[in-house]
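2024-03-11 09:14:02 INFO worker-7 job=invfold-0412 stage=load source=structure_tokens
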């Protein structure tokens, strides 16, 4: 399992961190994992699954 940083997720999905946070809050994006008091990450497989769903919908 690989954990992606905020920067890596931003580069992968091409959304701003603010938009990613809005999607998370709405339940439309994989939720972050709290790694420490000031560090979060996303499970790479979940983010890639989310991207694949978007590709399948086009």
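2024-03-11 09:14:09 INFO worker-7 stage=emit residues=58
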């Amino acid at each position: 399992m690989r954990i992606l940083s905020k920067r890596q997720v931003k580069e992968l999905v091409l959304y701003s961190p603010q938009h990613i946070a809005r999607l998370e809050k709405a339940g439309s994006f994989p939720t972050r994992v709290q790694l420490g008091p000031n560090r979060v990450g996303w499970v790479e497989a979940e983010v890639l699954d989310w991207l694949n769903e978007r590709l399948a919908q086009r």
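2024-03-11 09:14:09 INFO worker-7 stage=report msg="The helical segments are 6-13, 17-25, 44-57."
2024-03-11 09:14:10 INFO worker-7 job finished
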